[in-house]
Amino acid sequence: MTNSTTESLTTDDISKAKIWKVIGASSAGTVIEWYDFYIFGSLAATISPLFYPKGNDTLAMIAYLSTFAVGFIVRPFGALFFGRIGDRVGRKYAFLMTLLLMGGATAAIGFLPTYETIGIFAPIGLILIRVLQGLALGGEYGGAAVYVAEHVPDNRRGFYTSFIQITASLGLLLSLAVILIIQSRMSAEEFSSWGWRVPFLLSILLVGLSLYIRLQMKESPIFQHIKSSGMASAKPIVEAFTNPENRRRVLISLFGATAGQGVVWYTGQFYALFYMQTVLKIERQTASYIIAIAIVLAIPLFIFFGALSDKIGRKKIMMAGCLLAVLAYYPIYKGMVHYAGNNVVAIQSTPDPVTKEPKLSPVSYATNEMTATPVTSAPNVNVPMMVLLIFIQLVFVTMVYAPIAAYLVEAFPAKIRYTSLSLPYHIGNGVFGGLLPTIGLLACAWTGNIYAGLWYPMIIASITFIVGMKYLPETHNHKIWEEMDAPK
To answer: Is 116 exposed, middle or buried (0-12, 13-18, 19+ CB in 10 A)?
Structure first.
């Protein structure tokens, strides 16, 4: 292939692809998949008691969060399975399959009977459904990120792929918005009884719409070229992980980028939500509003940092986000405790009066008393300050997350790109990040220290900063379109 052909592909083909249509179609489906995946976490406080034996809501929450984490643990397996399809058959076909799988699994939760009806089969069914959701999401993100990146100019990849990065937070925001709207239209008893099923069942309509949009899409021009010219990989998994140089890229991308990015993302959004609801005892709807407002305020920063990474590089921004998070988490969460207005100072374990099992409760000390009393609510929450503290955490989220799609696409060759980038991304986000809410709340419970949950994300983000600063390559000047001129 000649240089003139490459020049044509970087201008004419990009123009014909109608970049914004590509981004819109890819983002719509990805938002829906994130919505489906995160609706499970957003409803944790409401439905966790329904799928486990009654008598200890705290242990039910931990069991539920463990089931929530299962979906993250299996994401790397979905990344390998669908990554192979994406590198062999096509990016489009892979994320059509993930959309259908995710939608079906989410709708199934809406129909699943509770523990009171089917006993132990309720939590077992929940785990199996989470496995399917995790497998689907493991294939979705890589497909969307690669598909968009392979349509856009090299010098604006950070900017354009930042719109895919927004979808995860939009999915969480959509899940919170749907829950709040439904809760506002029924009593608390109705919502706890059957209303919680509506957000899951709504997925059927959303997936149908997204599927229609995605069916109109064409394959990416770069993949079309490598497939038609015989450059596609016959064994992408083997090539991705047996080649020493590519294996090294995978490990550096995991420990020098995605692991830290994963824990920062989940600390700033999910852990903060669970922390407000379970430790600070902020009313569920109020906590959801706080997170939702902060996300809305932070969304433009995804685009800002994505565009900035095209100018100054991906690495600087991501490493700065990890470092700032490590330095700021303790003062931020101390501020959250202060502005929750309930003087929570520890977690204590007390026997449940009915079951006699340990029950974990936040405790506070009254000003003139030496005895600890369980915290049942936080009536004096300073909402504007809580929004500000969550927003600051989301600034770190946007710094680490906005440039990472562009970095991952640029770090790996086209013929094994889908497989190669999906694995470190989903181990970093699914395992390191996804386990964070469970690990964090368990750490608080076991130690009695309400700040103990921050140790885990601070350690992982520190490791990423050290490894990334030393080994992570800067990729923003890499021209992926020039790969099409490489010898076969």
So the answer is: exposed
